[in-house]
Design goal:
about 160 residues; Arc Repressor Mutant, subunit A; about 60% helix; mainly alpha
Length: about 160
């Protein structure tokens, strides 16, 4: 059974994560500008399927067209990702891409390389995956657990 302190710590961690997500969403909204944000709000409130534009393809079927905002992505250095992760605890790939103005796929590739090098670790699965910087404390804890396991095997 979990203690009250553990529950409070869990709640505080979740609140910290939610506040970071709110900051990210607020920054994204302000980056869109007031004109685009108003349009996005109006489209979100309209649930009618006719609000979406459709077009006919060459074979006569209707397809929905999506306009993607043209965005130039910066090349993200691995050191920048590591510093963001160490400052923020844990971030998703998308949040890292937004904060660095980088391409999500390039950020993911860098994160996987850093993971293979033992400099970051991931928690969660699929959309809930978060990346964390591996600190000296983590390395010490891992080594202590390894030594403890060895000493138990010898006795």
């Amino acid at each position: 059974m979990r203690t009250t302190e553990a529950i409070v710590d869990s709640i505080e961690n979740r609140l910290r994560e939610l506040n970071q997500e709110i900051e990210t969403l607020t920054a994204a909204r302000s980056a869109l500008g007031s004109r685009d944000a108003g349009r996005a709000t109006a489209q979100a409130s309209s649930s009618a399927p006719s609000a979406r534009r459709t077009r006919r393809s060459s074979n006569g079927t209707q397809t929905r067209s999506r306009r993607r905002a043209a965005r130039t992505a910066d090349v993200v250095p691995a050191g920048r990702l590591e510093s963001l992760l160490s400052e923020n605890g844990g971030l998703t790939t998308s949040a890292l891409a937004e904060r660095t103005n980088g391409n999500r796929d390039q950020v993911l590739t860098l994160l996987r390389e850093l993971e293979a090098a033992g400099r970051v670790r991931r928690t969660g699965q699929r959309r809930s995956t978060k990346w964390h910087a591996i600190t000296d404390e983590d390395r010490i804890r891992e080594r202590a657990a390894e030594l403890a396991a060895r000493s138990k095997r010898k006795s």
